[in-house]
Amino acid sequence: MTALRYQMVIIWSDEDNCYLVHFPDFPEQKYRTHGETYEEAARNGQYVLELLLEKDGLPLPEPISEFEVA
Fold first, then answer.
1. Is the dihedral of CA 27, 29, 33, 37 positive or negative?
2. How far is CA 7 from the centre of its chain?
3. Beta-strand (E) ranges in 1-70?
């Protein structure tokens, strides 16, 4: 798997009764996907992030995260 340098935030939502996935580097929409389990949310988030990175003609944002990917 390729290391993607964008932060993925996964939080539990009591209101929605699922885990919500947010990408702070892509602020156009607060939550991009979700999952019934943390693992499902992470898989869905990975898929959505790959789709975001494939968009033609749109500049990619600079990652705002200050961490190193191992």
1. positive
2. 7
3. 9-13, 18-22, 33-35
Structure tokens at 8: 């993925």
The pLDDT tens digits for 23-55 are 988 877 777 899 999 999 999 999 998 888 777
Q: Which residues on adjacent β-strands are paired with residue 33?
A: 21
For residue 69, what are its two tokens?
């990917």
With 0.90 as the threshold, say if the pTM is over it: no
- Rounded Cα gap, residues 42 and 21, in angstroms: 8
Asked if 26 and 5 count as a contact pair (C-beta separation under 8 A), the reply is: no
- Taking the alpha carbons at both ends of the chain, their separation in whole angstroms is 12
